[in-house]
Design goal:
alpha/beta; 7-stranded parallel beta sheet; 3-stranded antiparallel beta sheet; 4 helices; 10 strands
């Protein structure tokens, strides 16, 4: 069976965030065929986001539901695992952030024969990766032998090296969103004139 790679697209509801291109670049280290997964509130948002990335992937699939306006890890992980199992993907790539630290272990638990590696900073080959441990004092080389591999990457260690593809397609995934006991209540954003450390091109310390 050929390996099938799914990359989770990170966005703010209006545009694709730069970290998504780093995830696509990481997956491209071992695969020439990349499928993007877009999860959004409405079909309009998903198709708009697809227009931004369609030249960087071979295919895109999307799920939409109003609950994804402010998603929680429980329902988000169900959407991801449903896509993985329905379309038989055996690689899932995403950036490493606080929300993914909550979501990806749930995805791994919902998929038989899946294992996860987080904070990858280098892709060695199809099943071997490097990641920092002990606060970065040691770089561990980890080999994953499971059928399904869930991978989160450190975006600061991968550049946007996406190549332009000739064409891509978009497909809608039908999903009945699972009821969750966890509900979104409120989000208080700390506003700053300074860019995020992850988005800043130059950091002076």
């Amino acid at each position: 069976m050929l390996d099938k790679h799914l990359v989770l697209i990170n966005h703010n509801g209006k545009s694709v965030l730069p970290s998504s291109y780093c995830s696509i670049s990481a997956a491209s280290k071992i695969s020439k065929n990349i499928t993007a997964l877009i999860i959004g509130e409405t079909e309009h948002i998903c198709t708009h986001l697809y227009e931004e990335i369609k030249s960087k992937v071979d295919k895109a699939v999307y799920l939409c539901d109003e609950s994804f306006k402010n998603p929680v890890a429980d329902s988000y992980s169900h959407a991801i695992s449903h896509t993985m199992s329905t379309l038989n993907f055996n690689y899932l790539w995403a950036e490493s952030n606080n929300f993914m630290k909550e979501t990806m272990p749930r995805v791994t638990a919902q998929l038989p024969e899946a294992s996860m590696i987080s904070d990858v900073q280098e892709v060695v080959d199809n099943d071997t990766f490097k990641k920092p441990v002990w606060s970065g004092n040691i770089i561990a080389t980890v080999k994953i032998s499971s059928k399904i591999k869930i991978i989160t990457i450190r975006t600061t260690d991968f550049q946007d090296e996406c190549i332009d593809r000739n064409s891509s397609t978009l497909e809608k995934i039908v999903l009945k969103v699972r009821e969750s006991n966890i509900k979104f209540v409120n989000f208080e954003e700390i506003k700053s004139d300074r860019p995020s450390l992850l988005d800043a091109k130059i950091v002076i310390a």
